Amino acid sequence: MIRLKTVMTHPLLLTMVLGLAAHADPTIVINEFAAINDSGLQDEDGDHSDWLELHNYGEQSVDLSGTYLTDNRKKPMRWKIPTITIVPGEHLVIFLSGKDRADPNAPLHANFALKGKGEYLGLFARDGLKTIHEFVPAYPRQKKDISYGLSSNWQKNPDKVEQFFGKPTPGAANGKPIAGEAGNVKYSVRRGWHKKPFQLSLSTKTGGAQIRYTLDGTKPNEDNGNLYGSPLTIDSTTTVRATAFKPSFKPSSPTTRTFLFVNDIIRQSPDGLPPESFPYNWGENKVDYGMDSRIVDDPRYSKELIAGFRSLPSFSVVMNLDDLFDRKSGIYANAEWDGREAERPCSVEFIQPDGSKGFQIDCGIRIRGGFSRRRYNPKHSFRLFFRDTYGPSKLDFPLFGNAGAKTFDNFDLRTFQNYSWHIGDKDRAIFLRDQFNRDLQLAMGQPAARGEFCHLFINGQYWGLYNTCERIKASFGKSYFGGKKEEYDSIKKGRTYLKDRNRSVGVMANDGNLDAWERLWKQAKAGLRTNEAYFRMLGRNADGSNNPEYECLLDVDNLIDYMLVIFYGGNYDAPVSAWGQNFGPNNWYGIRNRNSRDGFRFFAWDAEHTFRDVREDRTGPFPAGESYSGSNPQWIWQQCLENEEFRIRAGDRIQKHFFNDGVLTAKSVQRRFQARAKAIESAVVCESARWGDSSQTPSGGAASRERRPRSRDDDWIHEINRLAHEYFPARSEIVLAQLYSHGIISDMPPPEFKRATDNSRSIQITSSQGVVYYTTDGSDPRRIGGAVDPKAKMHEGGTIKLTRDATLNTRVRYRNEWSALLTTDGAE
Amino acid sequence: MKRNLLLVSLLGCFVSGQLDALAQKRSSSVPWPLLYPNPEQPGKTPLADMRKKMLAHFDKDQDGFLNKNEREKMRLATKMEAQERSRRIAELRDSERRKEGEKEGPPKRWLDLYDKNKNNRFDGNEWETARSAETKRVSVRYDTNKNGTLDDAEKKRIIGNLSRNNYNPYDAYIRRSISGLEDGKPEEQQSRWKRFDSDGDRKASRDELKAIREKEAATR
Mutating which of A286, A639, A732, A744 best tests the B interface, going by the most B Cβ atoms within 10 A? Predict the structure, then answer.
């Protein structure tokens, strides 16, 4: 950043800052622009598009035709200005909307929009080389509905050239600039959990500024909030939002801080009446407030309830409650609303239970879900969007640890619908089903939508146990697989109207388009029995070798592993729905980068209808997917099953995951499940206090008039134990039996390994019959087609010693049949 | 003791984005959801049991081992059995739909007004447009005192008409949604707080909450 003092004393630098070319040039400047135009100037479509204003400060008219606007100095000819003349003193507005309209007789729209966080902006001469005016290297971060540009006397006052303007004036001379921006309000006490009352001081670095604050979630402004005079006494759960104001200064961005006191949280609205300043009703939506004292005071839970709040991180949403609950405009009161119009501004804080670093960010919030949007559901899920309209355009925080993405455009705060205490099948409420399916997919080495459990507070009111969840969008693809967002197709079950075919289909592109998905479906529909057809879909020749001429449409190991998770869970609502008698798909996502050699990958999603009946068989085949409209990954799997090489590959993945302590073996699943259950067992007490009474159960039998809330020890633990001790011990082998009937599991047992215990990486291999073949370079001892690979060695007894980077792959061959592949790196 | 709304049992409709699902009657013989317990009675060794069963059927050379060809026959037999199950379900569904006759699918009035692409279904934004417009139309019709909202008496009239008239599923859905019947009884809490909302802002002030609690304590 060039300091103004340096600019003043260095004429060349001054010229550079002003971005004016050294020799005679059009007397045109980019006088003003707005990069975050949320509620100001509207274009002819009614949109609040970004805009800039060109000003002719000279005495001659200037012909702008053939000049260029750009936001990228390396691409100076980004958008060509049409034949248009700007007379002396004129201010010409051009929208930077991306709409690309160049009719000189209509409003002009460039083919790009501006970034709120700051970027280059320039006006280039016809040769595409000389700059006429530019903001270089970049204009600073912009603010909502505040414009930026040249001060009205920029030619006379070079030390105050670029300014912010509190009242944008598109098409007219710039008004009075803001003298600066008031410094953000600082708080003397950290956010989060507190035990004792304290005095909270608010301060700003801007001398002479006043601070206004609110306690009701609304943003303070000059007409709203309390004037801060002296430290506030904070002795109960409180949310504070504060802004600094000073005449001629832009108000500071509001800052928000939540202070949580567990002893008053557990006593919130015990009689179910609204907390103070909360509404009595939520439009037509069912209302449910408060913490049930029958749980809070139950000696079984009273201590653990308190510990439960600190057992998980918390999200604190602070916002204008009307945006949630007003019957005409609130998104919670009208939970079926969706899309950008149903998004509202809020502050979100992430509070770690141990006081370690969290975050606060202003963002957009919407209701999330499908079935759960119904009015009889009092506990809705949320989706958060990070946009420069509200604050930073991305959340930069390792929400899912070091292995997960560290930058987010959005994520979900989901809650548990079909098996929960507030709606759905209450006897089976464990809150783990969907997350555990995603855990299994991750554990198998596949990408998955990561998630963790947390508490949620809304304006300081406890709102229950929630589960974060990544969204399978282009941004997810970019984070985990690289490339650019615009290269990704993210496909899901939905509805798209295909204009060229005058019909709609039950599959949609969440990002990108449906073209590659349709090609995959068509190739599968044409039949995959031959190796030519099957491997073509994988971007390979019939012998399995890579063919760069062929696109790769499918990640076959990912598809197999995804389907194994579906089968293991007995998932009857994904990707084919038993609610529709298996004629239609549901709850699936697929993602692919069009510009890479990766094929479509699939993701467990909304996996709530899982782990019910231990006998449930979801292996099909099912009719869903016979038509393109119902296409889904299970149908692709079914078509792939026609090919022997696919069946062998599937058998290999089954061997990997269902045997030798693989992810889907009974012990492994139990271990993982019990770890998840343990992690939330205290937090479940908090959930039962908040939502356990949402639909009460008779206690002492159906005829009893005594009603009790659902609780951890009377309800949750029974289903946990059923799964841990009955379902999971039995499930693996039942699924293997189901898969056996599809011809995927060979009768030939694979070899057995015995590893040395002395860290020597020596392995003994035995087999009850047949010949053992092996490789140590990671290749398969079996060639496509069934012959022995020339690189494979026949094992003739003795031990095999592996080097540190070697992988042992083995199969048994007997009567021209091969066993499944067994792999090890020699480590214990 | 917390008070919550009483839940009225659902009328058995499950919206999965398709209105025909909403129109399904639970008295249907088509299973919903269609589940398949397999095996029916798993023993302690289900894989071994399945293998034994399949060997008995498909091990033609009786060597205790399914070779590639035998495995393929088994696979095809499993596939055909599943396809036969689906075929039977499809027949059952078609048969029930034929019996439903004109009740299936959207009524003509709705299609004429809202099916813009004329494909006899509501897709894209059509369903939301239809739902909003019909909700508004019916609300205006029943708002006899013209105050812009449906009060309890007006909702009661809708509910009464629902039980007397044989509405098609689409018109019935709109009326159930408006009256709150679809999602449970109209809020019990409305009558509880209405007279205490002294400033009419529908939000609980400290004084209002105090008044409610004092009143409820007195009546206990």
Answer: A286
